[in-house]
Model the fold of this input.
Amino acid sequence: MIPALLSNYAPADLSFEKGEGMYLYGNDGRRYLDFMAGIAVSALGHAHPKMIGALTEQAHKVWHVSNIFRIPGQEELAQKLVDATFADAVYFCNSGAEANECGLKMVRKYFSANGHPEKYRVIAFENSFHGRTLATIAAAGQQKLLDGFGPVVEGFDHVPVGDIEKVKSAITDETAAILIEPVLGEGGIQVVQPEFMRALRELCDERGLLLMLDEIQTGMGRTGKLFAYEHAGITPDILTSAKALGGGFPVGACLAVEKVAKTMTVGSHGSTYGGNPLAMAVAGAVVEVITEEGFLDHVTQMGNHLKQGHAGVVDRHPEILEEIRGVGLHIGLKCKVENTQVSNKLLELGVLTAKGGDYVVRLLPPLIVEDTQISEFINLLDEACTELENG
Done:
């Protein structure tokens, strides 16, 4: 007999009874330094007072009404995001995959509404990650995500990141858009160079294509900017957000410029739970904190401290660690041994991290991290590497 819970995960034999700030408290009686943040989700750490206040206040009012009625929280949060970004309109949903599905539908609807229904193909990039739906696994360019789920959803062409000539050669009369993560998170914290991002924007402008950015993991302050596209000095046509947007409460968003947004007419898309009052209250609190003066500067400062500390550890343990990569607090530690060895050793020492592709351990602490916790982590990483070297 199989377990009642579907066995599509292989969780560690560890659970948590509570969290506070940068720490989680396990049912094993130990305290854990959280450098994973639920995979870049818990941007404000655990039990943040503003999030608790927003959730409990709304919970005493109304939880769900559906989008048959106006939800004032949606209108307020949409305006905050519009004011802070390139976008003219926002659609709210429940997850990153849903946000990407909305963005991909927007691409097709835009060209269909403008008399070019033949334009539907999207150029995406190898080793990317966009979610677990049938369309988003097709967009990712990773065979392991597709195994057992054929036939593959049609409409995606894949090229290597960084080669603008291969992007150009992939364009056909059916090409509608280019989809890219500014940092390939699951792919091992591969930072897309600003020059390449600018080249993609120029190419889209020249060829009449849409540029869609998946900022589900990089967005909401993770890189030291509200959204990572700001580092390249460009703006997209469509952008997706989730993860940190709700700080742990399920919520996603798809942002778009006017020419795209106005083609999504009544009935073209929807969600039962998307943008519900609870999600809007919590996400509104998260956006308010992250956009406070000085918050993003703090993220940049802590990211620099983390990188500097890592450099010394890499130098001391060249048989274990190879390099540091990333931007802001979106950091990857490239290992010369299996990344599982490093992450498991850190777990033994009371630190939570996330694995990534290319032998990378992902370091994604809550954005509220301070110097003391970074120093604590660096010391524990040093200890982990020493123990691995000594067998």
Q: What stands out?
A: The domain at 16-34+294-389 is CATH 3.90.1150.10 (Aspartate Aminotransferase, domain 1). The longest strand covers residues 321-327. The mean pLDDT is 97.
